[in-house]
Amino acid sequence: MPAAKAKPVKSSRTYRSALRTKGALETRRNILDTAMRLFLERGYGKVTVADIANEADLAPPTVYTSTGGKTAILATLIEEAMQDPIVAETLTSVRKAKSAADVLKITAHGTRVDNERYHDIIEVMKYAAAVDATATDILRQSDAGYRQALGQIARRLRTLKALPRGVTEAKATDILWFYFGHEAWHRLVAECGWSWDDAERWLLAQTFTALIRPDLS
């Protein structure tokens, strides 16, 4: 009789490696979550890596090895927010939209979801930029990416021949940034106490008036 084939045995080395990887990811997540909480509670400028390590129950060298220093942690938090699929989903829907009204409705809701979901990190980023030159650069890059996405929306409005006379694609991008950028949502929701629903409806109405040809209203 042929000898029975031995069942493959998972290498203990592979198993230990998987455990180390999982542990490293959990440590990284712990550091990022702890840093975010402290940035909100104390302000970015008043938080040190030692504070983050202490709250996360880790040694400071572990924080540096896992995530880097405080600025690197902020950059990672912002990058995670920028990679949210809501941006790509919104732009895809805009490209498929057949009317200017639909383009603006999709944009209003997409930017609302993005700002609502990441309101805390946006606030941390703004305050960090006031005390850290590197954070200022990170904010500038983040805003540039945001404006670039809005530029694609302005291009769709131009393609649909919806822009009023004298409003170029570049100017339309500026108007979209004015109404749907971080500051607009922050002022209405955080400073004025509006609900996100009310802010979305009002900003949509204002943008429609500013960007859509009167004969299409």
From TrEMBL:
GO molecular function: DNA-binding transcription factor activity; transcription cis-regulatory region binding
DNA-binding region positions on the chain: 48-67
Listed InterPro entries: Homeodomain-like_sf, HTH-type_TetR-like_transc_reg, HTH_TetR
Matching Pfam families: TetR_N
Keywords of the record: DNA-binding, Transcription, Transcription regulation
SUPFAM superfamilies membership: Homeodomain-like
Chain ranges of the HTH tetR-type domain: 25-85
Protein name: TetR family transcriptional regulator
